[in-house]
Each structure stands twice: as structure tokens, then as C-alpha cells.
Sequence to fold (223 residues):
Amino acid sequence: MATVLITGCDSGLGEEFALQYASRGDRVIATCLNPEELLARHDFGSNVKVMKLDVTDTDTVLELANELHSAKIDILLNNAGIPGPHLSLADTDLGLWRRMLEVNLIGAFVVSRAFIEHVARSDLKVIAFVSSRMGSIGLNNTGISYAYRSSKAGLNMIMKSFAIDLAPRQICVLGIHPGNIATAGDAGLTACASVSRMREVIAEAGPHQTGTFYNYNGQILPW
Ligand SMILES: NC(=O)c1ccc[n+]([C@@H]2O[C@H](COP(=O)([O-])OP(=O)(O)OC[C@H]3O[C@@H](n4cnc5c(N)ncnc54)[C@H](OP(=O)(O)O)[C@@H]3O)[C@@H](O)[C@H]2O)c1
Fold:
């Protein structure tokens, strides 16, 4: 039984991660912006703790890390993010861009740095970042989406630095693209199937996989 801390469980992939790990009997710390709403939707068992966490609120992140100071966190899942919109060059909104960097990039950094000791003392020792192939420079053939792309390209870069810096402590750090849910890109891919495949990638992770950027199906993606 692993302990998994997930950010951004209010909806989408984060909520699905919480449900799937919970149904396996893992201990889940499901963090979200609105715990009341999440708890109203699900009848979680005693293995799930729902806690409020805005990843941009550094003080609250540090308070939570302190509150959980004796916990071992096997899998830290940085999922919280603003997934769009994907605006054109002309329509790029600088306010939204700053907010995306704050949530998608700096928030993930703050959370990961705050929980290093919890992960280091666990058995599995995995930090995963839910990234996007839109953050891959090599795969960018279609342009637009300056804000989102740069937030995820930055996320890939910090993932790599965490991997190098934490390798001496045997912590495995991964980036994972969840696929394109319910779009033409990965036709028919559901959040349930995506999360199930990402959980497999995470389950197979060890020190040799650290610093790798994966597709949800286990393929390695280019930077
Ligand atoms: N779905 C896809 O096809 C796809 C593809 C590639 C990558 N991704 C990535 O997958 C992750 C999950 O996305 P999703 O598709 O499941 O979208 P989603 O349903 O919008 O989930 C993102 C969650 O993060 C929460 N969030 C936003 N700001 C936050 C903050 N400051 N602190 C904590 N939580 C915050 C959101 O809450 P609110 O909604 O209340 O703001 C939302 O519940 C994101 O990192 C996204 O970039 C998704």
C-alpha cells in the first residue's frame, strides 16, 4: 500500500487519480481548491484524506508539508494546472500567461521542493509531473499556445533538474503527458484510461527512469 499525494483533485485527471489510487487501497492525500465539493461528489473511504491546497499559496504548501512532517509519500503527483485556452499569437493574454506560469510551473516547483523529505523517506520515492507534449519543443509543429506551451516546457526543464539533484537520494522524477483527452489527437482516450496507463508508467518507475519525459502509454517523448 503506497501513500500518494495528488494536487488539483477538484476535477479531471486529478480527481480520477484520486479515485483510482483510492480504489486500490492506497493511502491518498487528495489536495484540491474546494474540498467540500469533492467530498460531496464522492464517498471516499478512510484511506483518503481530502485537503485544501492552492499550489500558488507558498505559505499553505509549507504548512501542509509541516503538518504531514512524519508522513512518507511514495508518489507525489503534480497534476494541478490550467490546461488552456490555447490562444493565437495575436490573442495571447499576458495576465493569463503569468497565471499559467504561477500554477503550472512555479506551483509544481514549490510543492515538489516542500515534500522532498517526505518522498525521500518513502519506499517508492517517485515525484511525477503531469506535463504535456505541448511543452515539447521538438514536437511543436503547429505553433500558437505561447502561454501553455512555455509553462509545460518550463515544467519539463525543472523536472530534469529535480531528477539530477535528487538522484543521489534515489528519488525518481518523471514527466508524463496524459494524452489528449476527448480530442481528435488521441481519439477516444478517456480520463479513466489515461490515468490507468499513467499509473502503470509510475508503477514501473525506478532510479533508471529518472529524468524521462513519457507519453501516457509508456513511450518516451522528445524534449
Ligand atoms: N486533459 C488533457 O487532455 C491534458 C493534456 C495534456 C496535459 N494535461 C495536464 O493535465 C493536468 C490536469 O488537467 P485536466 O485536463 O484534468 O484539467 P482540469 O480538469 O482543469 O484539472 C486541473 C485541476 O487543477 C486545478 N487547479 C487550478 N489552479 C490550481 C491551483 N492554483 N492550485 C491547485 N489546483 C489548481 C483546477 O481547479 P479549478 O478547475 O477549480 O481551477 C482543476 O481541478 C494539467 O496539468 C494539464 O495541463 C491535460
